[in-house]
Protein backbone atom coordinates (compact mmCIF):
# COMPACT_ATOMS: atom_id res chain seq x y z
CA UNK A 1 0.00 0.00 0.00
CA UNK A 2 1.44 3.36 -0.99
CA UNK A 3 2.40 5.96 1.59
CA UNK A 4 0.58 8.61 -0.46
CA UNK A 5 -2.68 9.48 1.30
CA UNK A 6 -4.70 9.58 -1.88
CA UNK A 7 -3.49 6.14 -2.88
CA UNK A 8 -4.08 4.84 0.64
CA UNK A 9 -7.74 5.82 0.65
CA UNK A 10 -8.31 4.59 -2.89
CA UNK A 11 -7.03 1.18 -1.80
CA UNK A 12 -9.59 0.89 0.98
CA UNK A 13 -12.61 -1.37 0.43
CA UNK A 14 -15.44 0.44 -1.33
CA UNK A 15 -17.67 0.46 1.75
CA UNK A 16 -14.98 2.39 3.71
CA UNK A 17 -15.14 5.23 1.18
CA UNK A 18 -18.91 5.64 1.44
CA UNK A 19 -20.27 9.00 2.65
CA UNK A 20 -21.84 9.20 6.10
CA UNK A 21 -25.38 9.28 4.68
CA UNK A 22 -24.75 5.98 2.87
CA UNK A 23 -23.55 4.40 6.11
CA UNK A 24 -26.67 5.69 7.82
CA UNK A 25 -28.77 4.13 5.06
CA UNK A 26 -27.05 0.78 5.64
CA UNK A 27 -27.76 1.07 9.36
CA UNK A 28 -31.42 1.86 8.66
CA UNK A 29 -31.63 -1.12 6.32
CA UNK A 30 -30.20 -3.42 9.00
CA UNK A 31 -32.71 -2.07 11.53
CA UNK A 32 -35.57 -2.87 9.14
CA UNK A 33 -34.20 -6.36 8.55
CA UNK A 34 -34.00 -6.92 12.31
CA UNK A 35 -37.57 -5.67 12.78
CA UNK A 36 -38.84 -7.94 10.02
CA UNK A 37 -36.97 -10.89 11.54
CA UNK A 38 -38.50 -10.19 14.97
CA UNK A 39 -41.98 -10.28 13.41
CA UNK A 40 -41.27 -13.61 11.71
CA UNK A 41 -39.53 -15.13 14.75
CA UNK A 42 -41.31 -13.82 17.90
CA UNK A 43 -39.11 -15.87 20.30
CA UNK A 44 -36.19 -13.77 19.05
CA UNK A 45 -37.82 -10.33 19.33
CA UNK A 46 -35.79 -9.32 22.40
CA UNK A 47 -32.59 -10.57 20.78
CA UNK A 48 -33.35 -8.64 17.59
CA UNK A 49 -33.94 -5.52 19.68
CA UNK A 50 -30.56 -6.00 21.37
CA UNK A 51 -28.88 -6.25 17.97
CA UNK A 52 -30.68 -3.07 16.90
CA UNK A 53 -29.43 -1.15 19.94
CA UNK A 54 -25.87 -2.29 19.23
CA UNK A 55 -25.93 -0.56 15.83
CA UNK A 56 -25.83 2.85 17.54
CA UNK A 57 -22.99 2.09 19.94
CA UNK A 58 -20.42 4.88 20.00
CA UNK A 59 -17.60 2.37 19.65
CA UNK A 60 -18.01 0.93 16.13
CA UNK A 61 -19.74 -2.46 16.62
CA UNK A 62 -18.85 -3.49 13.06
CA UNK A 63 -15.15 -3.60 13.97
CA UNK A 64 -13.65 -6.61 15.80
CA UNK A 65 -11.59 -4.27 17.98
CA UNK A 66 -14.77 -3.53 19.96
CA UNK A 67 -13.93 -6.26 22.44
CA UNK A 68 -17.11 -6.01 24.49
CA UNK A 69 -18.79 -7.54 21.43
CA UNK A 70 -19.19 -6.91 17.71
CA UNK A 71 -21.18 -7.89 14.65
CA UNK A 72 -20.27 -10.94 12.61
CA UNK A 73 -22.04 -12.43 9.61
CA UNK A 74 -22.57 -16.06 8.68
CA UNK A 75 -24.05 -17.95 5.77
CA UNK A 76 -26.46 -20.86 5.74
CA UNK A 77 -24.74 -22.20 2.63
CA UNK A 78 -26.99 -24.69 0.91
CA UNK A 79 -26.66 -26.72 -2.26
CA UNK A 80 -28.55 -25.68 -5.38
CA UNK A 81 -31.39 -28.05 -4.48
CA UNK A 82 -31.45 -26.86 -0.87
CA UNK A 83 -31.02 -30.37 0.51
CA UNK A 84 -27.43 -30.16 1.75
CA UNK A 85 -25.47 -27.72 3.86
CA UNK A 86 -21.76 -26.88 3.72
CA UNK A 87 -20.19 -26.93 7.18
CA UNK A 88 -16.72 -26.05 8.40
CA UNK A 89 -14.84 -27.87 11.14
CA UNK A 90 -13.76 -24.58 12.67
CA UNK A 91 -10.03 -24.45 13.39
CA UNK A 92 -10.30 -22.20 16.47
CA UNK A 93 -13.57 -23.42 17.97
CA UNK A 94 -13.13 -27.11 17.10
CA UNK A 95 -16.78 -27.55 16.14
CA UNK A 96 -18.81 -28.13 12.96
CA UNK A 97 -20.45 -24.80 12.19
CA UNK A 98 -21.72 -22.59 9.39
CA UNK A 99 -19.21 -20.45 7.51
CA UNK A 100 -18.81 -16.80 8.49
CA UNK A 101 -16.59 -14.15 10.01
CA UNK A 102 -16.05 -10.58 11.16
CA UNK A 103 -17.65 -7.60 9.45
CA UNK A 104 -14.31 -5.72 9.51
CA UNK A 105 -16.10 -2.39 9.22
CA UNK A 106 -18.59 -3.37 6.51
CA UNK A 107 -22.11 -2.48 7.62
CA UNK A 108 -23.73 -4.55 4.83
CA UNK A 109 -23.84 -7.88 6.65
CA UNK A 110 -25.41 -9.79 3.76
CA UNK A 111 -22.41 -8.77 1.68
CA UNK A 112 -20.10 -9.92 4.48
CA UNK A 113 -21.85 -13.30 4.66
CA UNK A 114 -21.49 -13.80 0.91
CA UNK A 115 -17.81 -12.77 0.98
CA UNK A 116 -17.06 -15.10 3.89
CA UNK A 117 -18.79 -17.96 2.12
CA UNK A 118 -16.70 -17.41 -0.99
CA UNK A 119 -13.41 -17.03 0.90
CA UNK A 120 -13.89 -19.98 3.26
CA UNK A 121 -15.28 -22.44 0.70
CA UNK A 122 -13.49 -21.49 -2.51
CA UNK A 123 -16.84 -21.98 -4.27
CA UNK A 124 -17.76 -19.85 -7.25
CA UNK A 125 -21.33 -19.06 -8.21
CA UNK A 126 -22.58 -18.32 -4.71
CA UNK A 127 -25.67 -16.09 -4.55
CA UNK A 128 -27.64 -14.42 -1.79
CA UNK A 129 -30.77 -16.55 -1.76
CA UNK A 130 -32.86 -14.11 0.28
CA UNK A 131 -32.05 -10.56 1.50
CA UNK A 132 -33.97 -11.26 4.73
CA UNK A 133 -32.13 -12.32 7.89
CA UNK A 134 -32.35 -16.09 8.33
CA UNK A 135 -31.16 -16.30 11.93
CA UNK A 136 -29.62 -14.34 14.79
CA UNK A 137 -27.29 -15.73 17.41
CA UNK A 138 -25.38 -14.07 20.25
CA UNK A 139 -22.61 -16.33 21.47
CA UNK A 140 -19.53 -16.08 23.66
CA UNK A 141 -16.07 -16.47 22.17
CA UNK A 142 -13.55 -17.70 24.78
CA UNK A 143 -10.27 -15.91 25.41
CA UNK A 144 -7.56 -16.93 22.97
CA UNK A 145 -3.92 -15.82 23.16
CA UNK A 146 -3.96 -12.00 23.38
CA UNK A 147 -7.68 -11.60 22.57
CA UNK A 148 -9.96 -11.56 25.63
CA UNK A 149 -13.30 -13.33 25.66
CA UNK A 150 -16.07 -11.39 23.91
CA UNK A 151 -19.54 -11.63 22.37
CA UNK A 152 -20.30 -12.25 18.72
CA UNK A 153 -23.57 -10.79 17.47
CA UNK A 154 -23.98 -13.05 14.47
CA UNK A 155 -26.39 -12.17 11.66
CA UNK A 156 -27.05 -15.07 9.27
CA UNK A 157 -28.21 -15.14 5.65
CA UNK A 158 -29.08 -17.93 3.22
CA UNK A 159 -26.46 -18.33 0.51
CA UNK A 160 -27.03 -20.84 -2.29
CA UNK A 161 -24.34 -22.64 -4.28
CA UNK A 162 -25.52 -22.53 -7.87
CA UNK A 163 -22.12 -22.96 -9.54
CA UNK A 164 -21.09 -26.38 -8.22
CA UNK A 165 -20.06 -28.00 -4.96
CA UNK A 166 -16.28 -28.57 -5.35
CA UNK A 167 -14.99 -26.62 -2.35
CA UNK A 168 -11.40 -25.67 -1.49
CA UNK A 169 -10.19 -25.94 2.11
CA UNK A 170 -8.96 -22.63 3.59
CA UNK A 171 -6.77 -21.94 6.61
CA UNK A 172 -9.94 -21.11 8.59
CA UNK A 173 -11.07 -24.74 8.57
CA UNK A 174 -9.76 -28.09 9.65
CA UNK A 175 -12.21 -29.61 7.19
CA UNK A 176 -15.29 -28.84 5.10
CA UNK A 177 -18.18 -31.18 4.39
CA UNK A 178 -21.57 -31.20 2.72
CA UNK A 179 -24.19 -32.70 5.03
CA UNK A 180 -27.91 -33.30 4.51
CA UNK A 181 -29.87 -30.60 6.34
CA UNK A 182 -32.18 -33.24 7.79
CA UNK A 183 -29.15 -35.03 9.25
CA UNK A 184 -27.94 -31.86 10.97
CA UNK A 185 -31.42 -31.27 12.40
CA UNK A 186 -31.57 -34.78 13.85
CA UNK A 187 -27.97 -34.99 15.12
CA UNK A 188 -27.85 -34.47 18.92
CA UNK A 189 -24.16 -33.57 18.57
CA UNK A 190 -25.01 -30.59 16.37
CA UNK A 191 -24.57 -27.14 17.83
CA UNK A 192 -27.88 -25.86 19.24
CA UNK A 193 -28.10 -22.99 16.79
CA UNK A 194 -27.27 -25.34 13.91
CA UNK A 195 -30.21 -27.54 14.86
CA UNK A 196 -32.47 -24.49 15.14
CA UNK A 197 -31.52 -23.30 11.66
CA UNK A 198 -31.80 -26.79 10.17
CA UNK A 199 -35.30 -27.23 11.55
CA UNK A 200 -36.26 -23.74 10.40
CA UNK A 201 -34.96 -24.52 6.90
CA UNK A 202 -36.84 -27.81 6.72
CA UNK A 203 -40.07 -26.11 7.87
CA UNK A 204 -39.89 -23.26 5.36
Automatic annotation (TrEMBL):
Alphabetic keyword roster: Hydrolase
GO molecular function: hydrolase activity
Nudix hydrolase domain segment(s): 68-203
Record CDD domains: NUDIX_Hydrolase
InterPro entries: NUDIX_hydrolase-like_dom_sf (IPR015797), NUDIX_hydrolase_dom (IPR000086)
Organism superkingdom: Bacteria
SUPFAM superfamilies with a match to the protein in the record: Nudix
Protein name in UniProt: NUDIX hydrolase
Species assigned in the record: Stenotrophomonas cyclobalanopsidis
Upper lineage: Bacteria, Pseudomonadati, Pseudomonadota, Gammaproteobacteria, Lysobacterales
Amino acid sequence: MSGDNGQYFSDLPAFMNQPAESLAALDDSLRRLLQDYALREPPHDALAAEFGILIDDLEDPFQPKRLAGHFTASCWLVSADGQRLLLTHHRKLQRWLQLGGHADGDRDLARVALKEGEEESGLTGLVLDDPAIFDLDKHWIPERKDVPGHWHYDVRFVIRAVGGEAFVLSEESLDLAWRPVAEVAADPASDESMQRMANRWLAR
